[in-house]
Write a structure and sequence with these properties.
With 89 residues, this protein is mainly α. It is built from three helices and two strands; from the N terminus they run αβαβα. It starts with 10 loop residues before the first helix and ends with a helix.
């Protein structure tokens, strides 16, 4: 959802995109982070696991869409997924 590009999408634009995806008929949104041209690493091992789950939580907490959201990026073990659920992300 966030592109991590200098002068990239604003948070308001991210919310508009999410709503447009839902309006187009999607039943779930994968809140993928980053863009292939971004200079910010998102999936390499130096990135802490689940470090971007806050994006999914923020989008959910703002009640932008009513469909499920799926957090992504460096969630690669069951205990990491469980910790995200426990935190409410």
């Amino acid at each position: 959802m966030i592109d991590l590009i200098k002068d990239g999408s604003s948070w308001d634009e991210v919310k508009i995109l999410a709503q447009a995806i839902e309006d187009a008929g999607a039943t779930i949104i994968n809140t993928g982070i980053g863009w292939h041209e971004a200079r910010v690493p998102t999936i390499v091992t130096s990135v802490p696991r689940a470090t971007f789950s806050w994006v999914t939580r923020k989008l959910r907490d703002e009640k932008i869409v009513s469909i499920p959201l799926c957090a992504t990026n460096r969630i690669n073990a069951p205990h990491i997924a469980e910790s995200i659920l426990e935190r409410g992300d």
